[in-house]
Structures are given as structure tokens and as C-alpha cells.
């Protein structure tokens, strides 16, 4: 401690001061004037005043209210001053004061350390550890505060394209580097706004905007900034991003709804490909509500008995004999009427519902084909079903349970299903063919079609997409494409089924090109199980069979 000793006596406190130890800085003042001058020049922890020097008490207290004052005198002193009648107890008192000051300093340091930890914890709770940017919680609070401020502003969600590919091929360290580089690019590009990291490769943007066009233009500029080349530890990475944006204002009820709608706009942008920006549209909200209603209703459709199977005949080209039937799923509800498979199948595909629906469809399709004299049933399997573990064993077990030979089940898959994982798909299809199942590639010509693809996978049938059939009457190029597919399939020993045949002119053209089988509403609508059985037994279309299903896209 720094101790100021004010002692006008010649000997005075000197003998006792020597006993205070070398741990303290002792400064002597011979009188009040000198003591006040020294106190003005430097800070002291303790002042000891002896004898007549107690006259310095008042001016020293005025200079430093925190100064600890000790008066060694027989004279009476103020109550707030420590009074010692003689100096014998001075060393012990100084030691006690020193210990208390040390404890106070330790307590203050511990308190400050705790406060710093609390500040750091509060900061970390609202910021992203990798980039230092505000996190989702902070961003939501900022949006909520901006609503209260009034005026027009924009909330945007930005998501990187191909980020997972970077992580999978170059590792997470490089992926983290790309995230940091993108964060810097966004902060540099939006100096007056707020940039937050909301998730793995998702960022939130909050900025002033005069209107929707201005907000969209700002997002397009930021998406271009994210599309730059970033050097990450020697790897030159080409960035790409999509963004969804919504214009906000004082009329908006809460921040969560703005974030939700911006996220919907982002989903719309991502569905259109890389480097797209989409403004929120109310139709997106309505589509989401419809999707939720469909998902909820679909989960209960089996139990309610709302689902039904119908079967569309597949006819041989020349004699129009019934070679098989494609199994189609229909959903009729009390609330919404008939819902198209084109609407509910994608919803089921995005959830685990596709497996329950697929089990139901396969069970009833196999039950139906067991009644037919020799035709096959063609069942569509979605990419998610095709990727399920032990798909081959699953199909084999269902056929054995139904007592149906594998050759009477045709498995229809799309090119999307097999190109998600080419090696796995090739192995799965090979094992299915070994077991005797028929394999059909549906919607041929609309995806990744190539001669290599057809040769790589063990197939039995190519199904030409209805878009080619519809166009071939009026577009020579479409007719030529169908002719080329037929020639290719013939060279490879594959059957060709033309889907969506609806007019006599299409029938004539398709027969002329040499397709092996025809399918479509020209020959009648899909049939109930009983009517399909009648057609199967007769091996031809029964003209007086009732129309049981309105024309819809097959699923």
C-alpha cells in the first residue's frame, strides 16, 4: 500500500513506521501543507496523522473521500476517522487494512471476471462462433425491433448452392473457410444493413428498401457477390447462392412470420436453380397451407378408405391385346373431392408417407394381378422407395406373400431414381432382373437419357413420355425422336410403350414408327379391379366397361 505519514514531531512515528515492513511505500510529510500537496500529486491508500498533524484530516478527506485516515493522538477526532491513542497498535492495524484491501481487490477482480464471462456468454448466445456474425436469435430480435421502428425494409434469406459438395470433397475445414469468405463478401456488400448466419450455409439479411423491386435488386447484387471465386487455403472455389426476400414494414405483426415468408421465397428460388432471387408471393403461402392440408389428410387417407386403385390397360401394337396394366392410385376426399396424384405424390415423396402408400399400392396391385390369366401389373416406385434398404428383399417378400411370380410384376422407375446413385441403382436393378422381375424406365426422354444410360442398366421396357406422343402429330422433330428411340430399343432388345395415346392419329403414327405397346385414354379410362379382371380374361378392351376414373396424370 502507499502510506502517507504526516508527523510534525522530530522523532514521532519514525520508530513505529520502521515496523510496518518493506511491503508498503511510505512517504513522510512534515506538515499539513506538504501533506495536501503530496495527496494532490498522487493517490494514497492510508494517511497516518500524528499529534498536531491531525489538522490535515479535513483537507485530506476533501481531496480523497476514499482515503483511509488514522489519527494517532490523545485529542478527540471525528467519528469516521480511526483513532489510536498511541502508535503501538499501528503495525497490526496497517496489516489488517492491507489484508482487507487485498481481499477487496481479489473480490473486485473476481466480480469483473464473472461479469466478463457473463458478457461473453451473452455475446456468444447471440452470435455465430465461426463467423462472429449475429445468429438466428439475434437476427430475429433485430427484425422485431425494425418492425417497431417503422418505415420500409427488406428481410432476405440467402443460401449457398453446392456447399455440401465442398464439405464432402474438400473437408469441413475448407467448407468453414468458404462460409467465412462468404460472410465477409456479404458484410462488405451490405455496409448499412445487418448480415447474420442462420445455419450451416444460410444467411439472413436485413436492410432498408424503398420497395419490392429495390429489395430484389439488392439481393441480386449480393447473390452476384457470393458468386465470386474465393481462394480458401489454395483451393479456388466458385461460389453460388440463391435468395428469397420479402418487403416488411410497421404493418407486419411479428418477426417470425416475416422470416417464415422469406424462407418460403428462398425455397422458391432454389427450386429454379442456382443464382436465383425470388420475391415472396402470397401464392407461396397458400401453396404451403395446401401442402400441409394434403400431408395431414394423406396420413389418414388409408384408414378412412379414401384411396383406391385403378388399372390402365397396356395394349400390344398390332392386335391391341391386353398385355398388362399400369397400377394407378386415386384419392377421393369428402372435403376437397378428387386430388390429382400429381399433387399428392410429391408431398408423400418428401415425407415417410411414401412408404406407407407404396406398401398399400403394391399389396393391392399384387392381389389384382393374381386374378388375371397371365398379364403383368406395372407399379411405379418413387426414388425414395427405390433407395430404401434391402429394396430387392422387400419386393421379393411381398410377391411371395401374394403368391405372384416375379415375372408378372413390372417395376417402373424414373431416371431420377437411378441417377441419384448410379452404382447402387445398377446393382439393385441387376439383382431384380436376376430374380425375374420386369424393369421399365418411365418418362424416357425427359431426364438424363443417353445410350450409355440404357446400356448400363438392365432394362426390359422404355416408356416414351406423353409429351413426345402429344407433339409428334404436329412436330416432325418429335416424331423423329420417337422413331429414333424405337430403333434404339429394337437394337437393344427392349420393348417400347407409348404413354398418353389419346387420338386415332397418334395411334396410326405410333404404329408406323414401330412401338411395341400403346397406353392411353384413347382406349378407355383406367378400370376398377373387377373391370380390369374382365379385360384381362377377355385379353381385350371391353367396350361397355364403365368409366371409373376421370382422365388424370398417371402416378
UniProtKB/TrEMBL annotation:
InterPro entries: Biofilm_reg_signaling (IPR052155), EAL_dom (IPR001633), EAL_sf (IPR035919), GGDEF_dom (IPR000160), Nucleotide_cyclase (IPR029787), Rev_trsase/Diguanyl_cyclase (IPR043128). It comes from the Bacteria. SUPFAM superfamilies: EAL domain-like (SSF141868), Nucleotide cyclase (SSF55073). Pfam families: EAL, GGDEF. Gene3D superfamilies: 3.30.70.270, EAL domain (3.20.20.450). Residues 291-540 form the EAL domain. Residues 151-282 form the GGDEF domain. This is Bifunctional diguanylate cyclase/phosphodiesterase.
